[in-house]
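Why show two proteins at once? Because comparison is the fastest way to build intuition. When a single record is shown, students tend to memorize it. When two are placed side by side, the eye starts asking what differs. So, the first record is below.
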Amino acid sequence: MKMARAASPIPEPSALERTRAAIERMVMEGALPPGCHVNESALALQLQASRSLIREICRAMVESGLLTAQPNRGFFVREMSLREAAELYDIRASLARLAGAQLAARITPGQLAELSDLIARMDAACTDWDAATFYTLNNSFHDKILKFSANLRLQSVHASLLKELQIFRRNSIVTGDIRKSNEQHKAILQALAEHNSLEAANRMEDHVQQSKVRFLENITHELR
């Protein structure tokens, strides 16, 4: 009789990973707003890390597009232009198209059920006009599509892109018709269920492009 193999323990994140996650969270949540100077000494004290570790993380965050480096001045949280944000949406739409096409060819009944459940919960949020809950469920819906596509590089690039977009989106709540958005989710699910790669790709790309339009309209309104 074979003994069941014990599951491998999940490794604890390293000090570098924990500290970088904390700094990224500060940027995403606005504790370090766009244009803000990154005080390495203060962060080292706050996060109980060495300045050399903070500096190493900041250099990596420059490469990922979250910070900028200025000679003799240090690191600053990136300030993103409207044009840059629009370009990131276009890239996101292309990635969504690829995810939809790849997932349609391989999606399982269990995965369809998970996506269907999220759509049902978003319907309930629409009925209650609970935009915060809808937003969380919407993110889960898109995250699962990326995860189910089983394309690890696609997931990595998409996650990095969303971090950049969050710098801009954080200060602007993207409003819109959440019912219409969920109808688009249903159309995406139908294409996936039919294993129609072309239709799923088109639906996914169009969905993100419409999000871009709402985003730009909202930002334009705020800037008036």
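Second record. Ask yourself what differs from the first in the token line.
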Amino acid sequence: MPTRSLDQRINDGPVLLDGAMGSLLMEMGLLSGQPPEEWTINHPERIGKVHKLYYEAGSDVLQTNTFGASFYRLKECGISEHHDQVNKKAVEVCRQYGGDALVSGDIGPSGLLMEPLGPAKPEELKEAYVRQASVLNENGVDLFSVETMIDIEEGILAVEAIRQVSSKSIIANITYAKTDNGYFTVMGNPLDVCVQRLLDAGADIIGSNCNLDSHELYELAEKMLSLTTTPVSIKPNAGQPVLKGDTVDYGQTAEEFVEGMLKIHELGVHILGGCCGTTPEYIQLLSEKLKGES
């Protein structure tokens, strides 16, 4: 039976994304500061195990282990010569272990500030994203995810780069902070401007991930739904990270996280997942609650 498309899944009911990967990999032995993308080559079975856990928990869409696999992020880690191999293998592993879930080519920020605040030139960053998107597209991703962008300018470059090489759906997630004047990125980009510019650049689904928890993102989701008629994606943190000894603890339990997500779903958000601090337990509970309702 052919895999259902993203549009078909959205029409059929809520679509669940996956949750955090890094914390699970650290439980498997990933060292602090070690790039998770390196494990795609050295320990593909461990990356695959994470994908399988999320698929079994109920995820309809799984993100490739390529959040930090753009050229400049890999260069910082000293493995840029493996750029194409890392991205290609990540798609293969996700497909192999992810059942009939859709595979989303995940693209994160470069970690560099753009001119005039930093050394990165927009044209060079865009070329890096074109290269990454090309490899992901050529190896058969079903869609793309741009996420955790804190500068709308870089987010736009990533979306435009994908659109240059592919017509597949793009979920564009920006990371916001809540202020007395509304929601803004770290770089001061307001929510309404980000939404419109991402749509103009070619994004199909607009959303937010990271930083805020599922209760804190309720008002943002409500506002975002008023700004666009496209589907909206919400991927909150499970609270703010707090270092306790050698471990990082997040404030929201799975039950608290899901409580907030159900309220967001009631607003009309049908693409939901988790970011930092969330695990397959969170996604499984969300799946049980949402798919029992749908």
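One difference worth noting in the second protein: The chain has a mean pLDDT of 94.
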